[in-house]
Amino acid sequence: MQCSAPSLCVGIGQASPRHRVPKALGTVEAARSHPVVRGKRASMAAQRQAARLIRLLELLNDRSGPVPVGELVALAEREFGVSEVTLRADLTTLCAWRPVRKMGRGAFGCAEGGAGGDADPSSLFATRRRSRAEAKAAIAAAVVQDLRADTGLRVLLLDAGTTAFFVADQLCEVTGLDLIVWTPSLPAATRLATAAGISVRLLGGEVHASFAAVAGDETVRSLVALAGCSPEADIAALPIFPGAHCILDVNAVGPEGALYTDESTERVQKRLMAHLADTVTVIADASKLFQPRFGLLAHEVCSLAELAGRDRIRLVTDSSASEVDQGRCTRMFRMSFPGHEVMVREEGGAVVLEARRR
Length: 358
Hints:
Arc Repressor Mutant, subunit A, 2 domains, eight-stranded mixed β-sheet, 11 helices, globular
C-alpha cells in the first residue's frame, strides 16, 4: 500500500514520531489499545483501519476548529485509497470512542476533554451503530442519492434504527431541500434539527433509551392523528399520501418477504409509517437477509406483498450480500410485486432493488 505518511505504515503497536497529539494524547493511545488495533494476529484490513484512525485523530487534533468532511474524504482517498463510505465508517468508530464528534453540517472535530460521540457508548443503540458501520454508510449513501433525485418529495417518514440514523447523518449535508421529516428517532431528530431546508417533527410517545426512540401506543396514536383519522381507525382504512416517502429500518427480512423488528413496541408504528407513504424504502444490511428468527426476538411488521399498492418499493442492502442472497431478493421482489417493473442495480457499496408501478 502506498502512503504519503510512511510513519503510519509501521507495525501495530510500534511507536512513531508522528504520533504526537498534544491536545488528546490519550485518544491516540486508546486507538492503539483498541481491539481493532492491537494484536499481532490482526488482519491486514484491521491494520489498515488502525492507520486510518490514528491519522484522522492526528489531523483533527491539529486543527482548532471543525474540519469539513470533504477534506477528510480527500485525505482518505489520497493517503489510503479508500472511499467516502469507508471514511464515514471510520468517523463513526471514532465518534463511538468519544474523542471525536460531529460539529455542524458536514464537519467533524475533536471533543473537548475527550467527550462527545454517543451519549452512552455502551447503550444498545450505540453498540448497534458501531456494528457493520461501513455497510450502513453505503446503504445510507444510496438512499440519500435517491431522495435528492426525487423532485416530488415533500414528507419523509424516517424510521428509528441505526441505519436510519446514517441516512439522517448524510441527509443533513444535502442543500436545496424543502422537506418535512417525521421521525420517532431521537438521535436522527437531533442531527436533522440544524439542517437547512428540513423541518423536523418528533413523534410523540414513551422514550426508550435503549434504542433511542419513542415507541408504543402514544406513538401509534400520533401517526393516526397525522393521517387525519380517529384513533379507532383501522390501518387498512388509512390513506396513502402522494409525495410521502417512508424509510423503514428492519432487523430481518424473511425468505417469503416478511419484514421483522426486534422491538415489539415498534411493530405497529413501523407498519403504520410504511402504510401512509406512497414510496417505501426498506433498509437492511446483508447480515439481516434471510436469517432465522426465533421466539420473542421476531416481531413481524408486514410483508413486502402488503406494500404492493405503492408507487415505488425499494430494498437497499450492502454489496457484501452474497450472489445467492441477491438472487433470492430479486425473485422475492418479482413474486411480491407482479404488476411492477423490478430493477436491480449497484450504487457504490450498496445493492438497490426497486419495484416501480407500471
